[in-house]
Amino acid sequence: MKKNPFIILFFLFSFILFSGVNDIFAQRTGIIWVVPESADAYPVDGNRSGNPGLNMLFEDYHVIDYRFVDSFYVAPYTNKFAFYQIQLDPEYAQEEYKCMQFLAQCYRGLFNGVALPYYNPLYQNGELVSTNHGMITLGFYQHYFNPTLVPSSSTRSNNIWMNQILMQYDIEHYIYDPYVSPISGDTLWRNIYIYCENDDLIPLYYDLLTIDYLYEEISIIPGFQVIYDNVYPCGPYSSVTEEESTPFAIYPNPAQDEVYIAGVTPKSVMIYDILGKRVAAELNPDRNSIDIKNLPNGLYIVKIMSDEGEQFIEKVLKQ
Predict the structure, then answer these.
(1) Tell me, what's the pLDDT at 19?
(2) CA dist., res. 68 & res. 77, Å (int)
(3) How many domains does the chain divide into?
(4) Residue 304 in contact with residue 261, Cβ under 8 Å?
């Protein structure tokens, strides 16, 4: 299994313990973030994917929206991933954690990992909760730590550049958390946790990127779980479907003007952008090809229905 920097974050945040903060209102948001890896894991038709097995989970957990959020750095700045949001019906928001566990354990190959983006470790009641308060983490490991970044109050630092950003948002907590070795007494790493309303979380994240010289890492996803090959009671939930595997391929990929379909005779072709919006597609049945020259450059999901009623899905990069 390939290594993933998310595993470092997950274990780090799993051991974070806070105390003395009691004014966080715990609630379920019904929001789950995922990083799709397989072509059929991407959104189709607004609230469904291209994978029938995954759609079974979406139906049972009343998913009302599945869409692209943004691309965020995770840990070092070399790791940036596209996150997509799964939104449950508000009446079923309390099922978010259980739904996230199924996504993490039963749909291997579809996602790199899953997260509760508004999981709040400040709230301690013996269970994993998420709230309407988002957290951004700044990390300092082998990076010089500017002492002006320590808090001057519960919502501000002593750093003028940091405070110019913080004052623009509804900051609820600004917390400095160093980890000191119990053996050597040395500070091994430092973290700063910044909490604000989730409506302000992504704009705040981008503003903090303008002062990235002050810290080494930035993360907006404290609850990320990596997909493991461990046993989980998945029941009917699985990415495996009854569709037969076919020597199907789309080439060239990446492509510029035209892509060709091999291994299947297409009856219809649909193309979606990364937001799940259907775009124009013209099939040439004589050449078994699709004209994509008028599409903007980017990543697309190609969905093909064969004469026999089989469905095939693949990612295509237009350059």
Answers:
(1) 38
(2) 20
(3) 2
(4) yes
Q: How far apart are CA 56 and CA 237, in angstroms?
A: 7
| Residue 40 shares a structural domain with residue 156 | yes
Confidence at residue 15, expressed as pLDDT on a 0 to 100 scale? 35
Query: One-letter amino acid identity for 192?
Result: I
> 132 and 81, same structural domain?
yes
**CATH code where residue 293 lies:** 2.60.40.10
Same domain, 34 and 111: yes
- Residue 292, domain extent: 249-318
Q: Based on the domain organization, do 293 and 200 belong to the same domain?
A: no
User: What's the whole-number mean pLDDT along residues 279-306?
Assistant: 83
What angle is formed at CA 278 by the lines to CA 275 and CA 282, rounded to 5 degrees? 140
Rg for the chain, CA atoms, rounded = 22
182 with 302, same domain: the answer is no
pLDDT one-digit tens code per residue, 27-50: 788 999 998 888 778 887 789 888
Between residues 197 and 22, the one the model is more confident about: 197
Same domain, 157 and 210: yes
Residue pair 134/195 in contact (Cβ under 8 Å)? The answer is: yes
For residue 255, CA distances in Å to 50, 126, 250, 251, 315 come to: 22, 51, 10, 7, 11
The pTM for the full model equals 0.67
For residue 11, name the pLDDT band (cuts at 50, 70, 90): very low
| Residues 177/191, Cβ–Cβ less than 8 Å | yes
Q: What are phi and psi of 63, to 5 degrees?
A: -75, 125
